[in-house]
Specification:
Layout (H helix, E strand, L loop, with lengths): L2 H30 L6 H11 L5 H21 L3 H19 L12 H16 L6 H4 L9 H44 L1
Helix pairs in contact: 1-2, 1-3, 1-5, 2-3, 3-4, 4-5, 4-7
Length: about 190
């Protein structure tokens, strides 16, 4: 192994640990209430408040994609599936924060966007030699698994986000209609 390959593999390990660890921590907040998280019940209430309904299955799915995908990324195991799952979860999170712009301080998609892009990059690039995938001779990291995982997760994510966006739009329209009705009623008195 050349010095270049060692550097690349060490860089992939560091990236996997940082991204995977962050995602695993966020997933454990949703699933178990660790690190100040709401657990499934609290996360379900939040998910419903931002348009993901039903909330409890949405919270569990997001928690598993973040927690499971993050843990697997950190370990470098089943990297195409893990990276795709994590990227899908971050796409869902970005759909919520997109209207606020990019920067996190304004409630934007900065964190979810970066974590999603890094997860996607790891799914495509693979985990490197310092990984369980390498130890297991890449049995869960075959080239055909990358487009398959990305297609399956991408399709599922697109459907979920589209359904959520429709629900949010209906809620906005209903609220606008109620406001207009209330405004009209106040002028007729």
């Amino acid at each position: 192994m050349t010095g270049y390959e060692q550097r690349r593999d060490l860089g992939l390990l560091l990236l996997r640990l940082a991204v995977g660890g962050t995602l695993a921590a966020h997933g454990s907040q949703k699933l178990f209430g660790w690190f100040g998280g709401g657990g499934v019940k609290g996360s379900a209430r939040f998910m419903e408040s931002v348009g993901f309904d039903p909330g409890e299955p949405s919270a569990v799915a997001a928690g598993l994609a973040e927690g499971g995908g993050g843990t697997l990324l950190a370990l470098g195991l089943a990297t195409p599936a893990a990276g795709s799952a994590a990227a899908g979860a971050m796409t869902g999170a970005s759909a919520v924060t997109w209207p606020n712009g990019f920067f996190a301080q304004k409630g934007g998609f900065e964190l979810s966007g970066v974590l999603g892009a890094a997860s996607l990059a790891l799914a495509v690039s693979g985990p490197g030699r310092y990984s369980l995938d390498h130890v297991l001779r890449n049995v869960l990291n075959r080239p055909w698994m990358v487009p398959t995982a990305l297609a399956v997760v991408g399709t599922g994510t697109a459907l979920v986000v589209h359904k959520r966006d429709q629900r949010v739009q209906r809620q906005k329209e209903q609220k606008a209609a109620e406001t207009a009705e209330s405004h009209t009623d106040s002028h007729t008195d």
